[in-house]
Amino acid sequence: MTDTVKEHKRSFYRTEMLPPKPPPPASTGVLGWMRENLFSSWWHTILTFVGLYIIWLIVSFLVQFAIIDAVWSGQDRTACLADGGREIGACWAFIRVWHNKYMFGFYPEDQQWRVLVVYAIGAVLLAFLLIPRAPGKRLVMLLLFVIYPVLAYILLYGMSSLGLPVIETTRWGGLMLTLVIAAVGIVISLPLGILFALGRRSQMPVIRFISIIFIEFWRGVPLITVLFMSSVMLPLFLPEGVTLDKVIRPLVGVALFASAYMAEVVRGGLQAIPKGQYEGAQALGLTYWQMMLLIILPQALKMVIPGIVNTFIGLFKDTSLVSIIGLFDLLGIAQASLADAKWATPVTAPTVYLYLALVYWVFCFGMSRYSIFMENYLHTGHKR
Amino acid sequence: MSIEAQEKKGMSVSDEVVVEMIDVNKWYGDFHVLRDINLTVYRGERIVICGPSGSGKSTLIRCINRLEEHQAGKIIVLGTELTEDIKKIEEIRREVGMVFQHFNLFPHLTVLENCTLAPIWVKRMPKKEAEEIAMHFLEKVRIPDQAHKYPGQLSGGQQQRVAIARSLCMNPQVMLFDEPTSALDPEMIKEVLDVMVDLAESGMTMLVVTHEMGFARQVANRVIFMDQGQIVEQNEPEEFFTNPKSDRTKLFLSQILH
Q1: Of B11, B10, B64, nearest to B221 (Cα)?
Q2: Of A35, B7, B100, B140, which has the most beta carbons under 10 Å away?
Q3: Does pLDDT of A6 surpass 70?
Q4: Is the CB of residue B26 less than 8 Å from the CB of residue B230?
Q5: Averaged over B196-205, what is the pLDDT?
Q6: Where are the beta strands (DSSP E) in B82-178?
Q7: What is the pTM assigned to this prediction?
Q8: Which ipTM score applies to this complex?
């Protein structure tokens, strides 16, 4: 019958349908891919080689600095000083000496197991929460968001009646403090942000007005100002004798600050939900909260996962700002360690910053990858 | 179809009033979209509402479950007057099912979950019972085998049938259809209409906004023609199509019936 088509006859009818055929063999293998993506024209070929050269420059420098020329052990600065013409790269010996402080700040070494226990429980619960197939989500949520914070507080801060000596928050520091601030910020900012996003779209003027004021206030001030206000000005306003913990104050500041951003991210998602979804839910007789929790928010939040994780990542990195109000989070304690005269060498500071970048990157990249996984997992649109 | 033939099929109309609209008026801003609407719907009636776009026919049926708010007049559904009282509105919505032009299925839930959501959360029905009911109605609309797929994986006609099943799972006393076949490919319209005919034959009270005049002839016991926010003409389908009284109706029918 195909012959008939080729002859360009005006009139034609098919007597049998064509069976499906396999697609043409793809531009085969690695070579085909390279030809298509890297060398499709002389201009692309030049760009490819320029790109490769830049990558080579960066990687070779990093490998040279961080591995080949690196000093891995030593007792003081002499180990990391260039003597006898040898190039000196990263001074990992310094990081090793200070590593415990980087992780725990001034938390007494014999009590650090408490932090590790908090990490371990948190990691297990988080794994159960984040792995979609893991069972018992409700129980895990209850444990993670109700029991765990109390437990973590008791473990970290201490309770003498349980034989856990009190460790003042002033002695908290390093990565542990960074994680505490980030975790509290994340856990508070998401629900609070959702509430304010709903509030801003509420039909009740008072609630809408309060939400707008909250969001616009916190979005309108820089985080540094918030932190200074919380550490310097807030005590002036409190009645005499009332003191707020030095860590709690910026903690609240960071959490509220992130909530405002989260609210706007979530609002973006809410606005993207078609009106028909609200009407479909209402027509079935669902109440406002049923409609929001069962129909609207699951879709809206899924849509703004990239924005939510973006805010989380921003929050995680912004915790480093607490170092300027005298808290020794990971960045703060690392900066302080640079004043260690025993280790003053030209490579100490670059090493420390390289190390910091690596630690922050691991956490942020982890969050980023998880968000991509979740986006794909929750995609139900046209799953085949 | 004559009255007798309809009653043979079980499509009898009782004299129990289900929906009553008295002098209902509604404005969108300055635009007077519903003007002095008076309409009484008896249990078991199948009313088809037609009219040009912008005539207020969708708005009219959306007022019945308060997706739109009327500003003047009275709407009484199943003995309860629609007011600001959200509790009463939710009560009425439980008894009044609605099917939309664009289906409005919940894309993040499977077909089965779409159907069981409201019975479980609104009626507090045990999950297992809700699933049995859902499967029963999915069989009625002839797609039980799609129960575990997501709406995005179904064709338009299948989605609309799921939407009908989803409404029926709440065991409503009245069903509202807002142009249920307007967004469908031509080949899928019939499968949805067939389901609606079945539903009419089961005695469901239905208000259907549609341009499917074949459907109106086959199942309606009353056809209402609206224009400019008003009911221009209403009559039994036979009389409405063969002997329309108003010039506006004649013009409309001449445009859509070729």
Answers
A1: B11
A2: B100
A3: no
A4: no
A5: 93
A6: 96-99, 174-178
A7: 0.84
A8: 0.92
